[in-house]
Structure formats: C-alpha cells, structure tokens
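In the laboratory, one determines a bound structure by crystallizing the protein with its ligand and collecting diffraction data. In a computational setting the workflow is compressed into a single prediction: the sequence and the ligand go in, and a structural description comes out. We illustrate the idea with flavin-adenine dinucleotide.
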Amino acid sequence: MNPRAHRLEVYEVVGETAEAVSLVFEIPAGLVSRFEYTPGQFLTVRVPSARTGSVARCYSLSSSPHCDDRLAVTIKRTPLGYASNWLCDNVTAGSLLTVLEPAGNFSPRAWNRDLLLCAAGSGITPVMSILKSALARGRGKITLVYANRDRASIIFARQLQQLVQRYPRRLTVLHWLESERGAPTAPGLATWMRPYRTWDIYLCGPPGFTLVAKRGLAQLRVSERVIRQEEYRSLTDNPFEPPTPASPIATGTLAPTAPPGVAGAAGDATVRVEIDGATHTLPWPRGKKLLDVLLDHGIDAPYVCRESACGTCVCRVARGRTRMLVNECLIDEELEMGLTLACQTLPESDDLHIAFDQ
Ligand SMILES: Cc1cc2nc3c(=O)[nH]c(=O)nc-3n(C[C@H](O)[C@H](O)[C@H](O)COP(=O)(O)OP(=O)(O)OC[C@H]3O[C@@H](n4cnc5c(N)ncnc54)[C@H](O)[C@@H]3O)c2cc1C
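The predicted complex, in structure-token form:
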C-alpha cells in the first residue's frame, strides 16, 4: 500500500447541484500535519471496483485552508463515468475512504497578485479554494470566468454571489451559460478575458474547455508558458497499487543501467536527493526518469499521475543540468526557479543535487 494513503472518515456530504456533491472529511489528530494543503491542491481517492479491485481518481479541494475548518472535495457526476457516480451514489456521513495526502502544484505562490481564474463545470473546485484564499489573504483583484451548461448546474452559485457582495471592488464573476450563448468559443472567451490578460491566469476544467480557453488567450497574445492549468482527466495509473517497474527510455546510445542498490554502471550520473529530511546518493542511469530511480530504490517519493500533468512529484534541481521529456504543468517562472517534474526528468550533467522542498 502507498505509504501516503490513509483512511479518512467522511464528516458530511453536501448536495451542491443535482449532479455534484461535496465530501467533507474529518482528519484524525494524528494525521493533521499530513493533510495540510495549499489552495489548488487535490486528493486522490481510492474507489472500490469489483472489476479491477480499485480505481484511483483525483478530486481538487474546494475548501480553503485559510477560511474553512475541514477539508472538502467536490465531485460532479461524469455521464457514464465510474468513480464519480460511485462516490455520489455510495458515500454518506461516516463512510471511510482511502485517500492520498494532498498533492499538486496548481497553487499561487503569492497572494497579492491580480488573478484571472477561468473554469468550467467541476473545474471550479480548485479555483474556489484559490479565490476564497486570495480574498481572505491578499489585496489583489480577481475575475472569474465560469462556464456551465445552465443556471441550475452552477456549483457554488450562492457562495460566489455572496462573495461578490462582500468584495464588490475586488471580485468580478462572469457566468458563461451554454443555455444562453452556446458552448464557449475562443473569440468569445478572448473578448471577456481581454481586460485581464496581463494578470496571473489559472485555467481548470475538462480538456475541451482548457483548449478553447488557451486558444482565446493565444488570440490575446498570452503565451501558454505563463498560463497555469489543471486538466481534468482520469488517471491511467493506480497509485494505491505497488508502482509498476519502468523500463528505461530507449535512446540507443545509453550505457547499461545498474540494478538498484549496487554501484552505478559506467556512464550513469550520480544524484544526491534530499527528501523527507533524509539524503540519498544514488546512481542515475542516463535513460531512467528520476521518479523511477527513486521508486526502484524503495524511496517514498510523492507521485500520482506519472504523466507530467498533476505536479505531485515537483522538485528542485539544486545542482546540475536535467531535461524533462514532457511538461504539462510547470510555467516559465517555475522553470526559472529550477523546478522540474521527477516523473519526466532525465540527467544531463554527471553530478546532480535534487531537493524535494516545494
Ligand atoms: C488533478 C485533477 C483534479 C480533479 N478534480 C476534480 C474535481 O474537483 N471534481 C470532479 O468532479 N472531477 C475532478 N477531476 C476529474 C476526476 O478525477 C475524474 O476524471 C472524473 O470524476 C471522471 O471519473 P469517472 O471514473 O467518473 O469517469 P471515467 O474515468 O470516464 O469512467 C470511465 C472509466 O472507468 C472505467 N470503468 C468503468 N467501470 C468500471 C468498473 N466497474 N471498475 C473499474 N473501472 C471501471 C472505464 O474502463 C473507463 O476507463 C480531477 C482530475 C484531475 C486530474
């Protein structure tokens, strides 16, 4: 079992709309520090399945660590989906769920910036946490562009209205309803987003929506490299099961790799890794991704998707050069800070130092 997995009791189930519920969790005293989180992070929930044993699904925290006493995730039914419907149909107050500790990188690093938040459907959940936190902690302005099918499907409609009344000079909420103007289009969103295009931008929702919103921003000459995004898709991996051994990347020119626990093969890089208060010095085969090296050596590195999307395995290159095979979630500012995703990182230098300190 993943050492970051814990059983949590559901304290309350709140009906948000006809298709969405919030699950509010009770965190036992001994786990409080493990469930500290930043706005924008998510939990990964294990959903039992007679077919596969279990499936794992990520759900963003809609609560704010700065405004709410308890952690909550908000789940919207996906038509024909498995886990979302199982959770909406089966979980009640008192249910026990197996959940991974909070993870993810979709979080502001400062609170006084102006924010353009853009969400569709259940994509509101991390955005709601960020929005509530920024209003409580910061002084910047916030505009939320929020797309939904119709008025009845707007999650947190009343809370948003109350927040606009409370912060009329700082918060603007623009509802795009498909029932009134059709599906969101790039030019339509561009018109709405134009006044805010220089603000820090956060996009969240299903892939179709984030694509259209990015096209709209491209029309406003906003580079994709400054847009923070969280794309809602189901995991293909199951982090509740033991990690599957990864094969090295085939490049044809790489030296053979040494098995874990033995001295590195000729050509391997050497990496010093700081994680959870311990330091490990390991051979790093040229064709092997950092996360796989750590897991091979039995080191409890954080990960969820292993596909570059969720940001759980973010770490900092303190010395040496690396390269990422795929990067779906780090923006330029973070790359300049030396951040990288362990699940996609290969060594370029011979001698490296990596810190899991984010
Ligand atoms: C970082 C992140 C945060 C997210 N946050 C949220 C959020 O806050 N709120 C939200 O609503 N969504 C969120 N999502 C999306 C969420 O994780 C799921 O993708 C979504 O709920 C759809 O999952 P589903 O299983 O219902 O649907 P699908 O994944 O579409 O279900 C179909 C899949 O389940 C499999 N399946 C069908 N039946 C079974 C069975 N009996 N046993 C096993 N497998 C089966 C099928 O083979 C198919 O692969 C987030 C996603 C990410 C990546």
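The helical segments are 83-90, 124-137, 157-166, 178-181, 186-193, 207-219, 290-296, 332-336. Keep in mind that any predicted model is a hypothesis to be tested, not a measurement.
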